[in-house]
Amino acid sequence: MMQLEVCASTPVDVAIALEAGANRVELCAHWESGGLTPTPAMIRVSVALDIPVRTLVRPRAGHFVYNGSERNLIISEAIDCLEAGAEKLVVGGLTVDGNIDMELLEELCCEVGGEKLVWHRSLDISSDPIASAEILLDHGISEVLTSGGAPAAGLGVGLIREFAELGLSVVAGGGVRKEDVVALGEAGVEAIHASCRTENLLDLEGTSSEIFDLKTNSVDYSKVEALAEAIGNWNNF
What we know:
single chain; 237 residues; alpha/beta; eight-stranded parallel β-sheet; 19% strand
């Protein structure tokens, strides 16, 4: 059965995702920058809403090539997230030549276990995604979040199918539309990952938007509901 995973940034996002039909959430802070590690408090509050919570572990915005101090921070954040109640951690890292960061990978497997890890879309920009996927499997990591090396998952079905055929559990993320569900399901996708966001601008009397950015990007009930319905149709089919 295909699952729906919604990317959430606040407890309100989590509650909306749950009510609209999501099976689980991936929790991150600073969604606008691509997502960063959420606080333990945010994880605890979200877990209390009684929905499975995965957390992104990403210490800063930008590229996925980390130095020693950043690796240490990733390990510490990973442990904190699990202790706060996260069921799995969404992580990743690369070397400057586009290979998997083996030092980070081995430290994570040692400290938290490969079964708790989902390797994120850094896999999409690795120099050899299939070879990288095989390394992950060898280290006990059986799940990846990927767009299939394309700007959107609906365009990366070929590589996504190859990942699934290797034995990976594939979470397809990146610009997924309800129209993509059938093709992704046929490719062997286990779950759809989507943000389902709508931009909102608060009209705060007496406050200038030239001084502060008053926009928020919250999870949209109707978008989650539409994607959940498409996934439900695929599962029933």
